[in-house]
Write a structure and sequence with these properties.
By secondary structure, the chain is α/β, with parallel strands linked by helices. The chain has 14 helices and 14 strands. The strands form 2 sheets. Strands 1, 2, 3, 4, 5, 6, 7 and 8 form an 8-stranded mixed β-sheet that branches. The protein has a 6-stranded mixed β-sheet with strand order 13-12-9-10-11-14. The relative contact order is 0.12. The chain binds adenosine-5'-triphosphate and magnesium ion. The site of adenosine-5'-triphosphate has 19 residues, from α6 and β10.
């Protein structure tokens, strides 16, 4: 085993930093922290990482574990800003010196420099500056390595909190946001395309519980659409660290009606029907809105005129977290959250109900006339009857979505 391996073996905890929660009132903060702890425990359970406890300590959370894999796993829990595998020592200068020498010596191979960043909360008979000087001196003496203040090869952080000092060399960036479950519920329209899973994920990142909903457009779209939607919902369940209730509605019969009556309006009528049904499910499920993956002007149904026409069909707010992003930015996010590969698997056929030249400037009055002719209420009620639920569990084989490769090959 390498020296570095030895060092890894000795961690006794993972320090967890969280951001925005810290600025809430005491009562809200305490509730958010409890939710975060619970979500961290779920994630550790899902990743099968052994730990003794997850404890709150004034603005920090500590995972008591000897497994350094806990650091990246916990970094992917919504609300976490960053994590560090730490070694704990007593908060005396003597104890810190020997712990520091033990940690950095194996890392300071020939010619490498080091630096120390210390911070302190509580009452002690030394300052942060004293820590840097005393511990730095001890490392210099033991290893002969030079101190470098900016960009040293090895950066040692020392965080002293009351009676304990936490020493670490690594900071794993977290996913950020708010703990899942601290905000309300939204219905997430998930198409199996690239954008909608990203939109749903961004709402989860802000603490919302999601209810994924898919409209099955069979016979206008093959099975692949449905399979992709299921796969991305499984990936979202991994991020959530808990099962998701996935709703599927059959949309094909309505599409046939739209196509017959108003071919160039099919896409807009289709989206209005989706929104109408999603809004009714939102009410039944105590959700506060729906989330979709549109960005301005990306396709014909996403012009501002058409969004106006589509929006009107929903009587709950429609959230569009991707509205100002470019396709390349959506793809980058989709890669980061692991859904890109799932959204692009299999054949890439498009919906055959769509007209070659769909309207980009739908007229509200005209749409309403068509919908009156279609007896839209009855048609919606009929479609809503096809609603079926499926419980989707976080799937161990998709654990990779939490940490896809930096330059994934897909
Ligand atoms: P995506 O990449 O998410 O499929 P898109 O760019 O293909 O989006 P549209 O087809 O115009 O865009 O759909 C806009 C949004 O409507 C989607 O992002 C999604 O939220 C929702 N949506 C579209 N088709 C479906 C479907 N079959 N089931 C559920 N939601 C859908
Ligand atoms: Mg699509």
């Amino acid at each position: 085993m390498t020296n570095e391996g030895d060092e890894m073996q000795r961690i006794d905890a993972v320090l967890v930093r969280y951001g925005e929660i810290g600025i809430k009132s005491d009562r809200v903060r305490s509730r958010y922290e409890r939710t975060l702890v619970n979500n961290i425990e779920r994630m550790l359970g899902f990743c099968a990482i052994p730990y003794e406890a997850v404890v709150r300590d004034f603005g920090r959370i500590f995972v008591k574990t000897r497994d350094s894999a806990a650091a990246p796993a916990v970094a992917s829990v919504f609300g976490v800003v960053s994590t560090s595998p730490v070694q704990t020592s007593a908060a005396t200068l003597d104890a810190m010196q020997s712990a520091a020498v033990r940690i950095v010596s194996p890392l300071l191979t020939e010619g490498k420099s080091f630096g120390i960043r210390a911070r302190r909360t509580g009452t002690h008979d030394y300052s942060s500056k004293d820590i840097g000087e005393v511990v730095g001196g001890a490392i210099e003496k033991a290893t002969g390595a030079p101190v470098r203040l900016s960009k040293p090869d090895v950066q040692l952080f020392i965080e002293v909190r009351a009676g304990s000092a936490y020493l670490y060399t690594e900071v794993v960036p977290g996913v950020g946001g708010l703990p899942l479950g601290t905000q309300g519920k939204v219905i997430a329209l998930v198409s199996g395309g690239i954008d909608s899973p990203v939109a749903a994920w961004l709402m989860m990142k802000r603490g919302c519980t999601i209810v994924p909903l898919f409209f099955d457009c069979e016979p206008y779209l093959g099975d692949t659409g449905r399979q992709r939607a299921e796969a991305v919902v499984r990936a979202l369940a991994v991020w959530a660290g808990r099962p998701l209730d996935f709703a599927v509605v059959h949309h094909g019969a309505s599409l046939s009606e739209f196509k017959k009556l108003a071919p160039r309006m099919t896409c807009v009528l289709c989206k209005r029907m989706m929104y109408r049904i999603a809004a009714s499910i939102a009410k039944a499920e105590n959700a506060h809105g729906i989330v979709t993956g549109e960005s301005i002007g990306q396709v014909a149904s996403q012009t501002t005129q058409n969004l106006l026409a589509i929006d009107e069909a929903s009587d709950v707010p429609v959230y569009r977290p991707l509205i100002g992003l470019d396709k390349t930015e959506n793809i980058k996010l989709a890669r980061r959250i692991g859904t890109y590969r799932l959204s692009t698997a299999g054949d890439s056929s498009n919906c055959t109900a769509a007209h070659r030249h769909p309207t980009t400037n739908a007229d509200q009055e005209e749409l309403k006339r068509y919908e009156a002719e279609l007896l839209i209420r009855e048609l919606s009620a009929e479609e809503a009857k096809s609603l079926a639920w499926q419980r989707v569990f976080p799937d161990k084989s998709l654990q990779w979505v939490l940490n896809p490769e930096p330059n994934p090959p897909w």
